[in-house]
Amino acid sequence: QVQLVESGGGVAQAGGSRRLSCAVSGRTFSTLVVAWFRQATGKEREFVAAISRSGSSTAYEDSVKGRFSIARNNARNTVSLQMNSLQPEDTAVYYCAADVASASYSTSRYEHNYAYWGQGTQVTVSS
């Protein structure tokens, strides 16, 4: 089974930055699509960003475009989410997810496409 371990959560001030990391093991990393989702209290879980197996394709939810950046290092089996210009609305539990890409997609914003999930890490943004 694929195992994902997240790190980097914590508290930030509005306008600040934070970097999350997802370490992946249990399967050849380069075969996996990796994504970040988040869930705020009282809200549904939503897509944040995804990256293809090679890293050549990325996708972002509209509200984070230009502020968040997803990247992968296939040599280190890690995926990062660099979060800049943080706002209180970004406060949520952030989840790393992964799965083998199907013939239908190289990145996906849909939860059902991801079989493997991390435990979640809390990001709190205060003003």
Q: Helicity, in percent?
A: under 10%
Q: Please give the oligomerization state of what you see.
A: single chain
> How many DSSP helices?
0
Percent strand equals over 45%
Sheet/helix structural class:
mainly beta
Distance between the termini: 40 Å
Mean pLDDT, as a whole number? 95
Main pleated-sheet profile: 7 strands, mixed
Uncertain stretches: none
Q: Could you tell me the radius of gyration in angstroms? A: 14 Å
- Silhouette: globular
Strand segment count: 11
Q: Report the order of strands and helices.
A: EEEEEEEEEEE
Topology:
Blueprint: E1 3-7, E2 10-13, E3 18-25, E4 32-39, E5 46-51, E6 58-60, E7 68-73, E8 78-83, E9 92-100, E10 116-117, E11 121-126
Provide an overview of this structure.
The chain is mainly β. Helices cover 0% and strands 50% of the residues. It is built from no helices and eleven strands. Strands 2, 4, 5, 6, 9, 10 and 11 form a seven-stranded mixed beta sheet that branches. A hairpin with a 6-residue loop joins strand 4 (32-39) and strand 5 (46-51). The model has no long low-confidence stretch (mean pLDDT 95).
In short:
Helices cover 0% and strands 50% of the residues.
Defining key terms:
50% strand, four-stranded antiparallel sheet, 11 strands, 127 residues, mainly beta, 0% helix, seven-stranded mixed sheet
